[in-house]
Amino acid sequence: MKVTTDACIQGSWTPIKADVNRVLDIGTGTGLLSLMLAQRSGRIIIDAIELDNYAAGEARENVSRSPWADRITVFGGDVRSYLLPHKYDLIISNPPFFNDSLLGPHANENIAHHTLSLSYSELLRVMLMHLEEGGYFSIMLPAAEYDQWLKMANARQVFETNRLSVKHKRHAVAKRVVGLFCKKEISIVKNDELIIMDDGNRYSQDFTDLLSPFYLNL
User: Fold this and answer.
1) Dihedral of the CA atoms 143, 165, 110, 60 (nearest 10)?
2) Cβ neighbours of residue 168 under 8 Å, at least 6 residues apart?
3) Where do the domains of the chain lie?
4) DSSP type of residue 71
5) Which of 26, 102, 145, 163 is the most exposed place for a label (fewest CB within 10 A)?
6) 137-60-182 Cα angle (round to 5)
7) φ, ψ for residue 147 (rounded to 5)?
8) How far is CA 175 from the centre of its chain?
9) What spatial distance separates the first Cα and last Cα of the chain, rounded to whole Å?
10) How far apart, in whole angstroms, are the C-alpha atoms of residue 27 and residue 200?
11) CA-CA distance, 111 to 125, in Å (whole number)?
12) What is the CATH number of domain 5-152?
């Protein structure tokens, strides 16, 4: 699976609060989000789980070659039934995006991109099952799917605290949204916006500032 700009934005923007010690990465793919979070904080311990065996093997290899191998453990299995060892202060997931969409010819890519093996309702249930009482989770979705997720979360008494709307250009509509959620309702949701390209068709300063710790050339 390719590294995507979407995942890089989520991994660099998601806050790591001072009281976060244990992190769970659901659907880690090749381990990108776990590696980014480990780079950003030297104290957190990360468990990452991936259903696809081949991707889980790639994640283990990537972790083993990184400077943070002692703080990231990759599990291969189905998060719905896997007996994870802890509850977590932060859960992060960049889940399959598409509901009721046409499938491609490759089964592993369909699992990664479509909600075939883990529906949004199942993902929310699993997150709540493994979340510490005062913890929070980060999720990235297309804007339309995010609206569905928000309604479902609110119905389960799970509340949005922060939102990042991602636009390709200033006057474009937001195509992706990263949201933070917890079990405690707050009065004001903090809304941020990230524009990837400036009017001169170059990476914007905000995008460069956010991603430069992770890119060799930007």
Assistant:
1) -150
2) 175, 195, 196, 197
3) 5-152
4) G
5) 102
6) 5
7) -60, -40
8) 16
9) 22
10) 36
11) 19
12) 3.40.50.150
What's the pLDDT score for residue 146?
A: 96
Question: Measured between alpha carbons, how far is 42 from 68 in angstroms, rounded to an integer?
Answer: 9
Q: Using only C-alpha atoms, what is the Rg of the chain?
A: 17
Angstrom distance (rounded) from CA 112 to CA 122: 15
Contact criterion met (CB below 8 Å) for 28 and 53: no
Per-residue pLDDT of the chain (218 residues; tens, 9 = 90+): 567 899 999 999 999 999 999 999 999 999 999 999 999 999 999 999 999 999 999 999 999 999 999 999 999 999 999 999 899 999 999 997 654 444 344 444 444 443 456 799 999 999 999 999 999 999 999 999 999 999 999 999 999 999 999 999 999 999 999 999 999 999 999 999 999 999 999 999 999 999 999 998 88
Q: Enter the pTM of the model.
A: 0.89
12 within 8 A of 206, measured Cβ to Cβ = no
Q: Which two tokens stand for residue 23?
A: 């992190």
Element (H, E) at 115: none
Q: Which residue has 């790639």 as its token pair?
A: 58
